[in-house]
Amino acid sequence: MKKSLAAALLLAIAPFAANADGIAYNYVEAGYAHVDLEGETGDGFQLRGSAAVSQSLYLFGGYSSVEGDDFDVELEEGQFGLGVHTPVGERADFIAEIGYLRHDIEIGGLGSATLDGGRVSAGFRGMAGDNLEGWVKASYNDGGDLDGSLSGLVGVQFKFNPTWGIFAEIESGELVEDADTTKYMVGVRASF
Fold it and tell me: pLDDT digit string (tens) for 15-59?
C-alpha cells in the first residue's frame, strides 16, 4: 500500500515539475566513505550517480564498500531507484525517491549475510548561493530482509564551476538492520 501510494504521488506531480535554478540531476560522484557501526568503524569508498529522464524524473544509483578498521568486517551497499523533484521556490526543490537497497555483510571467520529491501525518501535540495548547494532527506527502509528503519541525511556541495564541485555528507540512523549507524562521505562531483 505504501509503495503504491508513493508511486502514485510521483506520477501525479511529474508533469508539473521542473528543477530549481542551479540544481543538477545529471551527475556522477566518487569519494571517501567512513562508517561508524555501533562504535566499530570502517573506511572505504562510494560511487554514486543520477540521470534525469524527463523534466522532473531522475534515476539514481550507488555502490559503496567499507572495511573495518579494527575488525574483520566488510560492508557493501548498493542502491538504485527513481526520484521526482518539483520546485518549492526559485532556488529549492522538493524531492521524493523510491528504490531498492541491498547490504552485503561479510564477517571474517563467521560468514556473510545479505539484506535487501525497499527505501522511500523525501527531502529538499536548494541553492544557498551561486556556488553552494545543500540537501536534507529522511528515508524509511522496509520490505524483504529490512524491518522498518529510519535515517536522516544532510549534505552540502561547493561548486567551483557548473561542472565540478566538492561535497560532504552525513547519514545517520539504522542504515544496517537493527544497528545504529552513521556514514560520512566526502568527495568530488561532476555535473553535466
Answer: 334 455 579 999 999 999 999 888 888 999 999 999 999 999 999
pTM of the model: 0.84
End-to-end CA distance of the chain: 36
Q: In whole angstroms, give the CA distance from residue 121 to residue 136.
A: 10
Bridge partners (DSSP) listed for residue 168: 156, 186
CB contact at 8 A, 98 and 80: no
Give the integer Cα–Cα distance in Å for 80 and 62: 6
Compute the distance between CA of residue 155 and CA of residue 167 in angstroms, rounded to an integer: 7
Tell me if 80 sits within 8 A of 60, measured CB to CB.
Answer: yes
Domain spanning 2-191: which CATH class is it, in words? Answer: mainly beta
CA distances from 46 to 31, 57, 155, 176 (A): 6, 23, 15, 16
